[in-house]
Amino acid sequence: QVQLVESGGGSVQAGGSLSVSCTASGNLYHINVMGWYRQAPGNERELVAVIRSDGTTEYSDSVKGRFSISRDNTKQTVYLQMGGLKPEDTAIYYCNADYSIHPFGRLQTSWGQGTQVTVSA
């Protein structure tokens, strides 16, 4: 079973910066997509940013130009640099990975436990 362990996050004032990272471990062959999602109280979980194994990225409109996602395939780690933070960015941030455990195996998905990001006005 693949585990995703997140680190980083915390509290910052509006306009500040934070970063989070997530490392995958376990029996896996290939990680296709790694990404970050977030969930604020009372809201559904939403996409923040994803990065594919070829390096292509996608961002939600709400974070474009402020957040940057990257990954280190050798370390099976995905990073999210968050700048220009706003109070509405406050949420639990979850790491996600789509992976296969052997060649030509079906893609499976795993979630991290979540890390809190709090932005005060």
The overall strand count is 11
Q: Averaged pLDDT, please?
A: 96
Classify the helix fraction into a percent range.
Answer: under 10%
Poorly predicted runs: none
**Cα-to-Cα separation, first versus last residue:** 40 Å
Describe this protein's structure.
The chain has 121 residues and is mainly β. It is built from no helices and eleven strands. A hairpin with a 6-residue loop joins strand 4 and strand 5. Helix content is 0%, strand content 58%. The chain starts with a strand and ends with a strand. Strands 2, 4, 5, 6, 9, 10 and 11 form a seven-stranded mixed beta sheet that branches. The radius of gyration is 14 Å and the shape is elongated.
What order do the helices and strands come in, and which of them pair?
Layout: E1 3-8, E2 10-13, E3 18-25, E4 30-39, E5 46-52, E6 57-59, E7 67-72, E8 77-82, E9 91-100, E10 108-111, E11 115-120
Parallel strand pairs: 2-11
Antiparallel strand pairs: 1-3, 3-8, 4-5, 4-9, 5-6, 7-8, 9-10, 9-11
Short précis:
The protein is mostly beta strands. It has strands at 3-8, 10-13, 18-25, 30-39, 46-52, 57-59, 67-72, 77-82, 91-100, 108-111, 115-120. The model has no long low-confidence stretch (mean pLDDT 96).
Keywords:
58% strand, seven-stranded mixed sheet, 121 residues, mainly beta, 0% helix, 11 strands
